[in-house]
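Batch 3, record 17
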Amino acid sequence: MEDKKAILRVENASRLFGSLRAVDGLSFEVYEGEIFGIAGPNGSGKTTLMNIITQVIPPNSGHIFFHDKPIHKMPSHKICHEGIGRTFQNPTVFESLSILDNMIIGSTFGKNHNRLQSNMDKIKEVLDFVNLDKPLDRIAGKLLVNDKKKLMMAIALIAEPSLLILDEPCAGLNISEAKESIELIRKIGEKGITVMLIEHNMQVLMNISDRVMIMDAGKKLCMGPPSHVCTNELVIEKYLGKRTAKGVKDIAES
Amino acid sequence: MDLLYLILRAFIQGSIYALASIGLSLQWGVLRNLNFSHGAAITFGAYIVWFSLESLGFTYLFAFIAMLLASFVLGIAIEWLTVKPFFAKNDTNIFIATVALSSIMAQVYHIVFGGRQKFMRPLVDQLIKIGPLQATVQELLTILITAFTLVVLWFILQRTKTGRSIRAVSQDQVGAILSGINTRRVYSTTLGVATMLAGIAGMLLGPIYFVSPHMGESPMVKAFIIVILGGLGSLKGTVIAAFIVAMVEVLVGRYIGVTWAPMMLFIIMIMILIFRPQGLFGVSNRKA
Amino acid sequence: MLKTTDNNRKLLLFYILMVLSLLALPLFIKNAYIMHLVIMTCVWGVVVNNWNLTLGYGGMFHIAQISLFAVGGYMSGIFINELMISPWLGLLVGGIFAALVSLIIGLPALRVKGIYLILLTYAFHYGIKELTDHFREITGGSMGLVVPRFRMAGVALQNWQLYYVILALLAVSVLLNWMVVRSYIGKALMAIRDSDILANSTGINPYKFKLMTFVMAAFVSGVAGAFYASYLSVIGTEIFSFTLIVNALGMIVIGGMGTLLGPMIGSFIITFFMEIFSGLEDYRPILVGAVIILVLLFAPDGLIQEGNKRWERWKSRGKKKSEELEV
Ligand SMILES: Nc1ncnc2c1ncn2[C@@H]1O[C@H](COP(=O)(O)OP(=O)(O)OP(=O)(O)O)[C@@H](O)[C@H]1O
Ligand SMILES: [Mg+2]
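Prediction for the assembled complex:
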């Protein structure tokens, strides 16, 4: 692990909302090519962490480096151009526009072109990849949750990010949809894209991630390979509970 | 001594501004929307009081009560017509609907009461002089009534069930729904209360200016500036900002020239937008 | 997908016919007053066309379009009167000043989100009005500013000639809007309108695109304002009346917000509506307001779209029935 290159380095990042320390002096690294899982109780600051990395909400303090380049003072759109793509916890798409327009927007602005990019082959390829098979002229606002999530992922993917941040991609999906989504994330990882994944289901997270970070009250509770994390006393006590811990451990070891 | 007098004037002016803007701020907190018919609601209050006094021969107390009731009903009607159909679906439409409504209301006043300015008699018609300070009793009453209204409002928000649900919704919509609060009811109550506050402002403005179909518009512009300055949704900030705006107006009016006061406010507003968009006392920039 | 070419051809034919009939209009209209109304329709058409670009496509809540229109009119008038420039040059002056002023309010206000823009532009509207009152020696105050009319070779132009001038401006405005909407700028605007956070993290700089569009729309409206002042040969503070804002909003809503041609059709409807019901005087603003609210409630995409939808539904219903019969 030591000789792996860090694609993202977060140093002592904090974000306050009033007196609430949503993210509290957090430091960690994400290595190139890995799937980095994040879990933690509700309100532990996972989404806020994603938001300060992508500058949707600027951090109050701390440094963030992407490919060794400081990005904690960059506006969101520049961060996208640098190669960080993301999805949101609530399925968010450009509601009044067609699937095609959504994709065109992703491929045009994601790489900062100033001419519309409507390469149909590429758009179809990405839509195929996320397995969204609705007509291209369907209005995005009329899609079901699962399809919206796929489209949101496709918009991020068509900009060819080197780091993809996924905020609970399986939340609100049924079991077979969630399975499909997990498969998709695995495929994304196999393409060499680094993935940061927030996921509540520990079984799933332990199964897919190379390393896992557990957050609590804006702080890092524990970080490391799945097998290491699920045997950590603190994690078991504060987050997993004994019974789940055992189940998860079995998965991590298999 | 001149300065002391100016401060008194600013205090009187600020009281009315506070009443005129606090309803807007309350509404912003709960609905995250601005109501363009707020000015027409101010005018409404003035007309109801004037009509009750002059045509129905009510005493001031009854006119006041009649105005409160009518304003509350009006507020509920405004919510039903302009907010309910579009809420959480299309903010632009709420904005346009309230603009259209305010135009309708102003014209209705014009038709019902005529375009002529109406004189509204003050509650007490007397002048008080203490050294260089002078003010009408009505103006002093204005300060008292404002203070009283704000205390009552504070009491309602802190101590009653309705008030608590209003505060709950303005802090966290989803949480409020989850904890079983009937948000629909809260929305209409909020508009009712906001319109009542506007009505009281109208009642106090009546004797100082004249009652006319568009009298509420210029206080509404001030109210917009005030809620930005105070921080949208912050009631405390709104009240303080109301006095700041009044102070600026009075001082600029006295030392630079009356016509420069609006320009000054405009410049202040731009400064605030650039350097502190959440306002002087605002905390939430959740969904501006 | 294939059908669209057929549809496109039909549409093209429709547009050509429309342009031709607009060009031929002065041949049929002999009544001077109707001609005047047609010109006013075009003037408001330009204003709402541009307001719609920023409000309907860009999702920028603001009410500055008429204030900027007024800035164009006043500045052009002041330059013509004080510096003796020709009214034709005044058109440019009006546009430039409107653009400058829009830059001044847009720079701070577009940085923060929606609601502040309404508040700021509303205060701005009143601020400009106060300014015109304040400098009444050069603006004419409530008496209005008298502005020379357009001339060519020393002769004052007639209304049918001026019609072609404003028609050209309208055409430029529509064309410009069309180009913007189709280009990457338009896509960015619509993306921002739908979700500025997603747009921002998809690589769009909302501030840049909004400001660009806001200033461009202001320029064209400013030119229209300059035309208005010289055409009527006077511009007064009633231009700041709230009724005008409501009417213009009505044009956009009735015609269909976020559509290219809708607002102009709205402009036609409202301008002539106000005239047809001129007997009702005081009741007109109430009618306009009520129509706006009713349209928002029952045909939120505007009358044109709604009509279209009904028509399509009616047509397909007929088809379904015939299919059923065949089976
Ligand atoms: N924009 C905001 N304004 C104020 N408070 C916020 C804001 N965003 C988040 N918070 C607060 O910060 C804390 C962390 O929230 P966050 O959404 O990051 O948690 P999370 O770990 O993603 O939770 P979940 O599992 O529910 O998604 C919560 O207490 C939340 O209420
Ligand atoms: Mg979250």
